[in-house]
Amino acid sequence: MITGQIKQQIDAIWNTFWTGGISNTITIVEQLTYLIFIKDLDETETRNERMAKRLNKEFSPVFGPDQQDFRWKNLKEMDVQARHNIFNNSVDGIFPFIRSLGSEKSLFSTYMKDASFGINKAATLDLVIEKLERVDMSKQDIKGDIYEYLLSKLEGGGTSGQFRTPRHIIKLMTEMMQPTLEDTICDPSVGTAGFLVAAKEYIDKHYDITELDKHKNHINKHMFNGTEFDATMLRIASMNLFLHGVEEPNIVDVDAVSKDNEVSDAYTLVLANPPFKGTIDKESIAPGLRNVTDTTKTELLFLALMLRQLKKGGRAAVIVPDGVLFGAGKAFKSIRSEIVANHKLEAVISLPSGVFKPYSGVSTAIIVFTKTDNGGTDNVWFYDMLADGKSLDDKRNLLVEPEVFEAFSFDGVVTSSAVELHDKFNLPDILARFPKRYEDTRARTEQSFLVPFAEIKENDWDLSINRYKEIVYEEVEYDAPNEIIERINLLSDERNKILANLNSI
Q1: DSSP 181-224
Q2: Model pLDDT for residues 130-148, shown as the tens digit of each residue
Q3: Could you say which DSSP state residue 409 is in?
Q4: Which of 175, 242, 274, 304 is the Cys-Cys partner for 189 at CB 3.0 to 4.6 Å?
Q5: Where in the chain is the domain with CATH 1.20.1260.30?
Q6: Angstrom distance (rounded) from CA 20 to CA 129
Q7: Which residues neighbour 303 within 8 Å (Cβ) at sequence distance 6 or greater?
Q8: Which residues form the DNA methylase adenine-specific domain (predicted)?
Q9: Fold of 4-142
Q10: Tens digit of pLDDT for each residue in 357-378?
Q11: If we measure between CA atoms, which residue out of 311, 278, 240, 10 comes closest to residue 131?
Q12: What pTM was computed for the model?
């Protein structure tokens, strides 16, 4: 959760770039991301070194003896010009070092090969490093929040909107799906890799170091997958995952729903917030996707893609715009009937429309489904999230204590105050009810309830919660009509007397 203070600090750094002659927003985001990466790389090295020493294990450093000057702790203490020379050296400086991280043929190395230093003035670099050093990045989620804030400054430029998924919504979806070491996870609209990083953090938290070591090759090379066609996002996603211990993530440079993406039956878990309200050229769409839903709308094509890419038994938690849930067009009904009738729709969680503010006021929902190829939908669990812990206006102020906001998880401590503050923060309740969703016997007037398959089919596969939720109207008793008329006549007589008095003056 990014605070007002950190926003001010990032804005100050942004202004430093501008006054230093760098005004291109993408350039600023990239250069600042590189600096955060270098800073975090050094801090990660220090943590790993201490951990290895404590466990009496062999330590393999990222920084060799000749690369100690590249460590943030040493860079920040250097002479201004000497530091700039290290950054600017295109042969054996810090950027060739960054490009060398990861194996020679890894996708990380491929995407980082174009990484280059773009701060021409030594004084500008000095000010940026000085101000960046003041930003508290000690909390686990803060770098992702900073990325989110930085990227909000981009004016559309190929970013597709998916990176703006709030961190606590990403965490909610990850906690609901409970990824395991056996999973192969994909985000087909990977952006900055927020969902994949959240899955990695979940796994790190729930498995001990021995288990993680056993699955190290799977974690580094096979577990984390994604597609993205924006070069900036590819580099940021690669750096983000590298800093979270994934050395060779499989992030592919391709338009996910195009003919060039042929992946199928590959993943056991999809976590995603694909682009909304976009369209794609009909000729470039993978033909198999249009067999499921004959459309050019990206929000529908991505769902068809996920069904294709999941293995049988694979699960998905996906954010979709409300139109997907109730759209009357043939393509909308086709994708809904495909998921509900031919696979297993587990849950529909309606999100408040302010969740994506200040960037967008679009109404959305999380849908959870399992690929079965032979149906299986019996009852679908609906939940009407009314409060996500923040104000639903453009300010998005926190409404609960930070400790409560950050503690929710299946195994985390949900304090009594979180329960008492349910009207402001529904996420702990969702996590408490989701595992027992099929035991839900609550009435349709409640915040969550079950809807049987047959009823959904009868309603043209409509998945909007308002279609099934019952609203109890409070009975209001009015006076008898003759009593109301009598009062009106009395008021009329009184008005006439006042007017008569005024006319006599």
Answers
A1: TT--EEETT-TTTHHHHHHHHHHHHHS-HHHHHHTHHHHHHTSE
A2: 999 998 887 656 776 777 6
A3: S
A4: 274
A5: 4-142
A6: 13
A7: 274, 293, 318, 320, 324, 335, 339
A8: 139-471
A9: Ferritin (1.20.1260)
A10: 877 788 999 999 999 999 999 9
A11: 10
A12: 0.81
